[in-house]
């Protein structure tokens, strides 16, 4: 039956499938569909660069134009993964350069990218268009110079929040004069000043530039120069938003913003001087995305500005907005989908602002489309969480960080099990959850019972026993990523649910109670998992088998154990674990 | 399963219920809770205090204890400076630079600190020989707190931006500065760099021990090539001594971009101006203080 359609017809049909899930489903129908599909797949996404090798990818998909790779585990963002752990992109670039001369897009997240890699990219792919480096590190502005100089058709250069060694700002001048193709440029993570003239000329000659995110070093007085040359901008990230208070600066700015009729997104705002916020009032009503999370403005200027943006869909802001500001937000921004509130002074035990659970409750009750929340605060109650759950059954991402670990319900001093239980029970579409506060095994029972669509779960300083982990691993059917720190979870739950780990992308456990012996056993029994032990203080076998490992990272893979591990990472596979135990026996432990 | 009390109970109570003694999150003298279970080798590479305190004798592998048993020099001011280094029992990575509290970032609630013998001395740098004593930590400022690594979960980019904001807003006095200060540490000849948070240390001695832990695997070879001179010598060794005898020098890059020798200025001044650290080969240190060169010459 499948043969009744000529291949090129099928290929044409498949070209409408953009989601990996759909393409993967199609390739399982029959051998000929598998063959046709693999030849025409153009985009691949690899959520864990160690789950597969470049050779395997290239063998299956011979003509790929866009590759997306992720490296380090998510907790690397919070310094829990030691430097030198891995995630090197260079071997991938070497293989991709050989196999895909027509590659156009590379997107990397949490990977180590060297100048060598960037240079290789810039010279290997003649039609290279898109480079996105999110939370990457290992490269300098010299690498960026190669990209600028050699990629003739570059459309997108996004440095995310990468750690770049800033040797100089001259790299930007390497864009040749005939480069007019830029659509998106994000250099907000760079510390040093880029040549403003070069930037101005670049912006002026790229008529399709839609996204421009500047770095802090670009002064506010010069912003109008850029805006006038790019009135078609859709997303703008300002540089430092501060200047001496002068009326001509203000009026230039206001006039420039008046000309930006397409502007929908604003970010940047470092060192914000609130007096200059009104310069943007003309664009506020069109703004759908606003990132004020680096803006240290306080109320009333802050809330006044935010309330002007009646069509706001996404707001990232510091806790200077306070409960009062969030109540105003709830009243004026009925289209809000996503709210992130970051702490202005996270390391101070005392609250410096009046931001409590009330703000979040207000927004949950007032904004019917709210589906994604990241909220840092210092107190929470079960009552508030229940109210949020009841108001927002459409919640998809809920990440709550109560700054003090193990903080109980501040009203009743009970654990927050009931509150989070209400969240998972009412929000049936919940895909991502991060919890904090005082939590017992009971909350995990609720999660295992109700959170059937949960894909990613982050747990810290929670639970009482292995039962907690067992509930999660046995109950959460859609779970893909689980990251745990400082919880009393040990061997039993892990070993009892070993096969579950093959259905997930990865599991991270640090400062828990998983023993070295259990890791060895898991590694031996599950050959399709890489069980990696991270022990910075010494080899895991220098103690008894019952000694807990410092950190554990388990992920499914078809590429076998990796070969680029630093001295403090050990893979528990059959060979390694038996050789380690031989050493232990010899020493007479 | 029995209902576990919901409130924050002390770790030892919990352990009775859950029988997790071995993996108890406790701050105790390293090895003390294990000494009755096993003699001989300690758990860690740096088991100097285990050896000294429990008289279990040296590890069979001298290289493993290359930095062990320092009885004089900087690290004595800390007595078992290794903080968590010797307690491989599932403890959280608590940076105890300023406080001895285990879980809570606040000053109060000494949960799990019942058997504390080793505490950070926050006295400044002058080395004092301290023989395995309990050091009550003294001079912490009220604003200081134990900082748990990676908590609250905020990305480095944001933390560094916050740090810059706070330092710009701060008055002249007061140490209520940013919460962390990560700097890169490189060692000539090592294949990769490390990062340390200078805010978690309160003295050069602190920093020294942390660095010795991080880089021991690279320096072992170097030291060995100078010849091991027996157990007494091993017991004297630690990074500063190692650096004295070997060809390495600890240097840092300051705000002006100059490479300076570590140890000349008061600790606070150092953390304020240090941008990165480098464990430099002595042969390259010729631009630094004359005494460094003398040290290098004196070895050969």
Q: Your description of this structure?
A:
The complex is a heterodimer of chains A (589) and B (300). Chain A has 589 residues and is an alpha/beta fold. Helices cover 33% and strands 17% of the residues of chain A. Chain A starts with 6 loop residues before the first helix and ends with a helix. Chain B has helices spanning 11-18, 48-54, 156-169, 204-226, 231-236, 239-245, 267-273, 290-299; strands spanning 94-95, 147-148, 182-187, 194-197, 248-254, 259-261, 274-281. Chain B is α+β, with helices and mostly antiparallel strands. The longest helix of chain B has 23 residues, at 204-226. At the A-B interface, loops of A face strand 2, helix 3, strand 4 and helix 4 of B.
Largest sheet of chain A: 21 strands, mixed
Number of strands of chain A: 23
Q: What is the terminal separation of chain B in angstroms? A: 67 Å
Low-confidence stretches of chain B: 1-145, 171-178, 220-237, 289-300
What characteristic shape of chain A results from the CA principal axes? globular
What is the overall shape of chain B? globular
Query: Oligomer, anyone?
Result: heterodimer
Number of strands of chain B: 7
Characterize the main sheet of chain B: 5 strands, mixed
Average per-residue pLDDT of chain A, rounded, comes to: 94
Number of distinct helices of chain A: 21
Report the C-alpha radius of gyration of chain B, rounded.
20 Å
Give the SSE map.
The complex is a heterodimer of chains A (589) and B (300).
Chain A lengths: L6 H8 L5 H7 L4 H10 L2 E4 L7 H7 L5 E5 L19 H10 L5 E5 L5 H10 L5 E5 L2 E4 H10 L5 E3 L4 E3 L18 E3 L9 H10 L5 E3 L9 H7 L5 E3 L9 H12 L6 E3 L13 H4 L4 E4 L8 H8 L5 E5 L3 H11 L5 E5 L14 H10 L5 E6 L4 H10 L5 E6 L14 H10 L5 E3 L6 H10 L5 E5 L5 H10 L5 E5 L5 H6 L9 E5 L5 H10 L3 E6 L16 E6 L12 E3 L2 H13 L3
Chain B lengths: L10 H8 L29 H7 L39 E2 L51 E2 L7 H14 L12 E6 L6 E4 L6 H23 L4 H6 L2 H7 L2 E7 L4 E3 L5 H7 E8 L8 H10 L1
Parallel strand pairs in B: 3-7
Antiparallel strand pairs in B: 1-2, 3-4, 5-6, 5-7
Helix pairs in contact in B: 4-6
